[in-house]
Amino acid sequence: MPTAIIFLVIFLLFPGICLQAESFRTSVEAIVEISPGAAEVVVPLGINSSVILDLGADARFLRGIELEISAPQSWLPYRGSLVMIMYNNLNPQNASGLTDMDGSRIAFEPLPSRLRIVYHIPLRQQHGLRTTTSVIMPTGVVQPVSFPIMFRLMQVSKGLPDDFDNTIFTLIARPILSDEGAVRLIPRFPPNLRNRPFTVIINDNVITNISDQILLREGEHHLVILSEDYRNESRRFVVERAKVIDLTIDLQDPTPIIIFEGPQNAQIFLNNTQISRNREPVTVEPGMHEVKFQVGDYTVIRSINVQRGKTYRVALAVDLTVQEED
Predict the structure, then answer these.
(1) Which of 254, 242, 245, 243 lies closest to 223, judged by CA?
(2) For the chain, how many structural domains are there in total?
(3) What are the phi and psi torsion angles at 8 (to 5°)?
(4) One domain for residues 57 and 156
(5) Which residue in 278, 260, 257, 281 sits closest to 269, CA to CA?
(6) Is the domain of 263 the same as that of 149?
(7) Are 136 and 274 part of one and the same domain?
């Protein structure tokens, strides 16, 4: 029975060995940090060498890590001579070069007989990753708290030619992003109404703590502000994948506002009080109000029922009608 298969059988029959630390010597070629905004990293890997994988400060937008291994043509005659092993609980965690290591094994299997090998390592329970004809998922979920982890190549066959030790593989490490982003809510209060209570609803869900960044799927979302002390508001915003956007909420005084529009020569009265010529918006109390427009001898009077938190635009329109007759 080939040595690689013997190793695999032992691993399957005694899975508990992956929970115990083991000591080994390896050549650490690089420490690679995986983060949402990071570009892919290319590392050459020799026989019995390894790479340490760590996560950046914010792994919220990662659902996994992709490791792509490119093998040289010279390796094909010696298929089955290598296994890949993955470890966590590393000691030391920042090793470089030829180093004696301790680690707990979390994956072990022969290197597939292909020139291109792709591994997917899931980082969350709802990862959506799976093993296919071209992709291997060698581990269960590896929680971010388990990092850093190590990916290692190890020779398991004896009697190979001396030049086999010079075989170089290429490892490319890249993040697998989730379809999520985040929003940071920034409330701004009117000077005379600071820190009054208000409710934030996003997509019909009440947000209990607006000081935290809110994780959302990429795409358009609906925000509603409800309050007894500020104006209610409704708006839409867009979240981009693996990005955090700042959304400023300008909380407004709920006192009703009336905006007047009309010809320059029109005199405008609100409750029999003339409005100034600069036509600035006028704040009023909720309830019934009388508006009068007067242009020369022409007068229009209307009553409006003003409600709290509303803005009203009152305009005098003058139409010109042209009709052709036979």
Answers:
(1) 245
(2) 3
(3) -65, -40
(4) yes
(5) 260
(6) no
(7) no
76 is a domain residue: yes
What does the DSSP assignment read for 201-223? EETTEEES-TTS-EEEESEEEEE
171 and 235 co-located in one domain: no
Asked if residue 97 lies in contact with residue 28, where contact means CB atoms within 8 angstroms, the answer is yes
User: Could you tell me where the DSSP H helices lie in the chain?
Assistant: 3-13
Does residue 320 fall inside a structural domain? no
Mean pLDDT by 10 residues, the chain (326 residues): 46 47 93 90 94 90 95 88 95 92 95 93 92 93 95 90 89 95 94 90 95 94 94 93 93 89 86 82 89 88 88 80 69
Q: b vs e for 215-230, b when ≥16 Cβ sit within 10 Å of the residue's Cβ?
A: ebebeebebebebeeb
Q: Are strands 219-226 and 233-239 parallel, antiparallel or unpaired?
A: antiparallel
Strands 267-270 and 273-274, bridge-based pairing = antiparallel
Label each residue of 85-104 as H, E or C: EEEEEEECCCCCEEEEEEEE
Strand order through the sheet with 168-177: 41-46, 168-177, 62-70, 116-122
324 in a structural domain: no
Any domain includes 110? yes
Q: Which range marks the domain in which residue 225 is found?
A: 180-250
Q: What is the pTM of this model?
A: 0.72
From 177, 192, 217, give the residue that closes a domain. Answer: 177
Alpha-carbon torsion 13, 17, 22, 28, what sign?
A: positive
